[in-house]
Amino acid sequence: MSERPVVALLDAMPETSRAVLADVFGADFDVVCVPDNSAEAKRAAAVGATVLLTMWGSVDADTIAAARDARLIQKLGVGTDKIDVAAADAAGIATFKAAGINADAVAEIAVLLALAVGRAFPKAMDAARRGVVAKEDLRAESFQLLGKTVGLLGLGAIGQATARRFAGFGVDIVYHDLRRIPAERERELGIRYVDRDELLRRADVISLHLPSTPSTDGIVDETFLKAAKPGLILVNTARGSLVDEQALAAAIGEGRVLGAGLDVTAREPLPADSPLLDLERVVLTPHVGGAVANNFPRVIRRAYENARAVLDGGDVSPADVVSWPGRKGT
């Protein structure tokens, strides 16, 4: 039996992604990949693993219990709401994320979604495929971003990356977060801090960049949407739990909200009976904000560096540490 540490990838991924994992970890780790996303496959892969990697799936208490040799659960992204961190703590297993690693990719899709809704892109693409000349119809339903106000709710790494990309469209950018960033940084990004009520009154586009917590889940509810500027475009690339989807669908159906661009939903995939599926001005992508091939090696390299630090007693960026039981100062 090999005495090398074992890294287990707990999400089923294509061969190209597994090859990157093997290339980065293979020199000094044995690599195990689940064949499918079943709970049984995850538990089997966790047995004997030193490091557990998860991109988008859950790591529950049963999987953690099977991972008796594990030292680290590494999220290949930022959100750790699908990891049972309390169970990991109880087992003495560190939980890390990869802070900021997907920020640029997610920021790009946030802008894409805002443009797709504002320019009625699904309808335009359908018209082109059917050979229909619909320029005047589409003109009446479309607007450019120039001169509009974009509101960022949350200003972490992804929020700031999104601000940089929207800035090129000639928009006014306002933001609200629990913590205001330094004035020098605001000037650098070309953004202004406002309270939440003002953001709702002013913003033509609101882009969500908040984590899923008890205080943020359901923040976009009927009250929020009624307080928003009429004709709002809502963009969510953060967490589906932030949005009351029934309230959003009702607001779009009533014409109070122009539309929404959603890379995340409360349930993934979206249930077939979701009212969002019937709305022309809802643009949906299946949680692919960070899913770009040319960034994946960076993600895996960060995971490798963090794993080596845990095993070798090295240092890890504090921004990556969610929990590290037994580590001095954590």
From TrEMBL:
Keywords: NAD, Oxidoreductase. SUPFAM superfamilies: Formate/glycerate dehydrogenase catalytic domain-like, NAD(P)-binding Rossmann-fold domains. Residues 7-315 form the D-isomer specific 2-hydroxyacid dehydrogenase catalytic domain. Residues 113-289 form the D-isomer specific 2-hydroxyacid dehydrogenase NAD-binding domain. It comes from the Bacteria. GO terms for molecular function: glyoxylate reductase (NADPH) activity; hydroxypyruvate reductase [NAD(P)H] activity; NAD binding. GO terms for cellular component: cytosol. InterPro entries: D-isomer_2-hydroxyacid_DH (IPR050223), D-isomer_2_OHA_DH_cat_dom (IPR006139), D-isomer_DH_CS (IPR029753), D-isomer_DH_NAD-bd (IPR006140), NAD(P)-bd_dom_sf (IPR036291). Belongs to the D-isomer specific 2-hydroxyacid dehydrogenase family. This is D-glycerate dehydrogenase. The lineage of its organism: Bacteria, Bacillati, Actinomycetota, Actinomycetes, Streptosporangiales.
